[in-house]
TrEMBL record:
Belongs to the carbohydrate kinase PfkB family. It comes from Desulfopila aestuarii DSM 18488. CDD domains: FruK_PfkB_like. Catalyzes the ATP-dependent phosphorylation of fructose-l-phosphate to fructose-l,6-bisphosphate. It catalyses: beta-D-fructose 1-phosphate + ATP = beta-D-fructose 1,6-bisphosphate + ADP + H(+). It is an enzyme of class 2 (transferase). This is 1-phosphofructokinase. The lineage of its organism: Bacteria, Pseudomonadati, Thermodesulfobacteriota, Desulfobulbia, Desulfobulbales.
Length: 309
């Protein structure tokens, strides 16, 4: 089974405008409301691939109820800790002219020590050997920066595997818990290590440096260019196929879903990376916040190029 944990979920409201400009009123030509938060995006992509998962995390208020109902309408099982306040709303404004966007994220509700203990207990009760857990996204107010380490320890003690997808201090302070896999992008990897990321060789070196901090394997995503994998002392570059990009928001989360999809089926890390690249590209080609289809992923997977660095 695959589980996703989203500590700071959101209602994602996206509005499309002809062009983004400032100090004026913009008129939306289209709009869409979806479940937001990195773990939920992973769960939606997994569902599109025909893979079941369980979504855990914190939810609050009417917005939380809406997220719960939306996920369940997609036949995604949920198991939330309900907290005080209101689940955040994130707003994106996307230009139909050139695909540029502006996204503003709210901080989210404040989480208490009791809430944290309840979620850790719930995860401990569910964790079993052979399962995959995706811990994804930012930390809401009240969550200590090392909380992911606590969850990683609980999950891996049960024999399950952890894919940690976060950034900043949440990534820096939880690498030492030795998750099986982390996935910063190139900018986040540079911020974490202070090392340059201008060439494939430099990016591979950065991946090695991050691996020395604790993670067993490291994927550094490069947007439309693809991603670099560092695993077992070697590095590979997976080049993304060419697509007509419509909206890159959420493509990285679809990539995570594709990697976990592959690993959960027994693929090698390299083959799983290729599936992740195909999933990310499929989602980036979709308008709004839709995710790619299994048919698209299969077509794009044949075009992914993998080379050792």
């Amino acid at each position: 089974m695959i589980f996703t944990v989203t500590l700071n979920p959101a209602v994602d409201r996206e509005m499309t405008v002809d062009a983004i400009s400032f100090d004026t009123v913009l008129r939306a030509t289209d709009w869409q409301v979806d479940c937001g938060g990195k773990g939920f995006n992973v769960a939606r992509m997994l569902k599109s691939l025909g893979i079941s998962s369980v979504a855990l995390g914190f939810a609050a208020g009417k917005s939380g109820e809406m997220l719960n109902d939306k996920l369940r309408s997609l036949d995604i099982e949920t198991d939330f800790i309900w907290v005080k306040g209101e689940t955040r709303t994130n707003v994106s404004i996307v230009s139909s002219e050139n695909g540029q966007y502006v996204k503003v994220n709210e901080p989210g509700p404040s989480i208490s020590d009791t809430d944290l203990a309840q979620l850790a207990q719930k995860i401990g009760d569910r964790a079993q050997a052979g399962d995959w857990w995706v811990l994804a996204g930012s930390l809401p107010p009240g969550v200590p920066p090392t909380y992911y380490s606590k969850l990683i320890t609980i999950i891996q003690a049960a024999g399950a595997k952890v894919f940690l997808d976060t950034s900043g201090e949440a990534l820096r302070q939880n690498c030492a818990a030795r998750p099986l896999l982390v996935k910063p992008n190139d900018e986040e990897a540079h911020e974490l290590t202070g090392l340059p990321v201008s060439t494939k060789a430099e990016i591979a070196s950065v991946g090695t440096a991050i691996s020395s901090m604790g993670p067993v394997s490291v994927i550094i995503s490069l947007g439309k260019e693809g991603a670099v994998l560092v695993n077992d002392g070697k590095a590979w570059m997976a080049v993304s196929p060419e697509i007509v990009a419509a909206n890159p928001i959420g493509a990285g989360d679809s990539m995570v879903a594709g990697v976990v999809w592959g690993l959960s089926q027994g693929d090698s890390m390299q083959d799983a990376l290729c599936k992740g690249i195909a999933c990310g590209a499929a989602t980036a080609s979709q308008k709004g916040t839709s995710v790619g289809s299994l048919e698209q992923v299969k077509q794009l997977l044949a075009e992914v190029q993998l080379e050792e660095i």
